[in-house]
Write a structure and sequence with these properties.
The chain is α+β, with helices and mostly antiparallel strands. It has two domains: 2-79, Nucleic acid-binding proteins (OB fold (Dihydrolipoamide Acetyltransferase, E2P)), CATH 2.40.50.140; 85-150 and 188-237, no CATH class. The protein is built from eight helices and eight strands, in the order βββαββαααββαβααα. The mean pLDDT is 94.
């Protein structure tokens, strides 16, 4: 059995002295693992860094077998950001979250397309990439069935001055609706509901804290999964 597809490198681990187990989020076959051999040279090894875009060819006796990969580079995005700790953490976090949340061998064209675009944005731009990252996490939450409802207040039904999110329902809340319960609610940064709003590091931290809460509550904890360390590192970068 053979197939080929464009894909995003998610991770790799050493299998033995001659091969690695490679996981790729492919456009046509979803998240898929396979063995890859012959990575003795530095150039070939650099192709399988997380976040890189490749053309992958897989072959195996059965779809359920581990099989073998051959990959050809399309865009080696990792080489663009080696000196940027925040960007490296972001791309590592993207790949880890995809690896942990996407179902095996099931294509998700929405997340594939948005992930590809986000990795390019992170690699090429200096500003606002972190805002795009936050929106990507919110989209991922929605795609796995746990989207937030930030259109209007859960208490007053108003669509302006939304400053909080209920940790129980995932719905937005205004100051008025929050009342005396503000300290029990999650902060909703303005830039999430008002696209042109200015934002600082604290707003990014609050946004990442918001999505992290619902990832953990609705997916990671029920499935007994650890939250990715790369994502923890990314949030801490904005904790100042």
């Amino acid at each position: 059995m053979r197939w080929s597809s464009n894909g995003i490198i998610l991770n790799f681990s050493k299998h033995n002295e001659k091969s690695y187990i490679l996981e790729i989020f492919t456009e046509e076959h979803g998240k898929h693992k396979g063995l890859i051999r012959g990575l003795h040279s530095k150039n070939k090894r650099s192709i399988i860094e997380p976040g890189n875009e490749v053309f992958a060819s897989w072959s195996g006796r059965l779809e359920t077998h581990l099989g073998n990969y051959n990959v050809e580079p399309i865009k080696l995005w990792s080489s663009h950001i080696l000196q940027f700790k925040d960007k490296l953490s972001a791309i590592s976090s993207i790949c880890s979250l995809i690896s942990l949340t996407m179902a095996e061998s099931q294509p998700n064209p929405v997340i594939y397309s948005s992930s590809k675009k986000l990795i390019e944005t992170i690699s090429k731009t200096e500003k606002d990439w972190i805002k795009e990252y936050v929106f990507w996490e919110m989209q991922l939450l929605s795609e796995i069935g746990y989207g937030l409802d930030l259109e209007r207040c859960a208490v007053t039904s108003r669509s302006s001055n939304l400053n909080y999110v209920s940790p129980s329902s995932g719905r937005a809340v205004t100051d008025e609706g929050a009342g005396d319960y503000k300290n029990k609610l999650l902060i909703l940064p303005k830039f999430i509901t008002e696209f042109n709003a200015n934002y600082e590091s604290k707003d990014v931290y609050d946004a990442l804290n918001l999505t992290e809460f619902f990832f953990k509550k609705r997916f990671f904890s029920p499935n007994n999964l650890n939250f990715p360390q790369s994502r923890n590192r990314l949030k801490e970068i904005f904790n100042h």
